[in-house]
Amino acid sequence: MVNHKTLNEIKKEGTYALVKALEPIGMVRFPQSFDIGSGDYTKERREWLDESVEDIMRKIRKVDK
Question: Which of 18, 34, 48, 60 is most buried as measured by Cβ atoms within 10 A of its Cβ?
Fold first, then answer.
């Protein structure tokens, strides 16, 4: 039989695990490491995928100089 935990139990165990692994200050800082970002990922991704390997290599060489 599968033992399903309540959300409260999961939160409690998760918090305990974070405190144990990261100590209290690290546990508080951990959620701050997640950033929702900005921009339109789908639009930008299409632009990245439209570039050829040669275009990308040209950009790398330009930055490398």
Answer: 18
